[in-house]
Write a structure and sequence with these properties.
Elements: H1 3-8, H2 36-43, E1 48-53, H3 64-79, E2 86-91, H4 102-110
Parallel strand pairs: 1-2
Helix pairs in contact: 2-3
Length: 119
């Protein structure tokens, strides 16, 4: 998300302004310091993956603000010469872990293979 818009825009019903009990969104003077792209930049060029579902209600729908931020992250990794390390996994669904692209990504960059559930 574009955090500035997500936390301050009165025209978007998903704005955190409509969730006054959730004060965690305003911690540490974040709005005056950085946005999600800058946070992702702190770990670059290390591996970075974001999953987003088409129906994710945590983000504004349509996902125009998210798409702008994610494009900025992808551009950062492209400019660093490691586009394969900054990835976005889009899937059909809501706010959940999909894993279809993320699990192989984690395995590739972190040598992490998910354990199979035990029945």
């Amino acid at each position: 998300n574009d955090w500035d818009l997500k936390t301050t825009d009165l025209t978007e019903s998903g704005s955190f302004l409509f969730s006054p009990d959730d004060l965690n969104q305003y911690n540490f003077n974040v709005l005056n310091l950085f946005n999600h792209v800058e946070m992702a930049g702190l770990i670059a060029p290390r591996a970075f993956m974001v999953e987003i579902g088409d129906l994710d209600g945590v983000t504004f729908v349509p996902h125009q603000f998210v798409d702008i931020e994610l494009a900025r992250v992808e551009d950062l990794y492209r400019r660093l010469g490691v586009p394969e390390r900054g990835q976005v996994a889009r899937f059909f669904g809501g706010h959940r872990v999909d894993g279809t692209k993320t699990f192989p990504f984690l395995d590739r960059w972190l040598n992490w293979t998910p354990k199979k559930p035990v029945n």
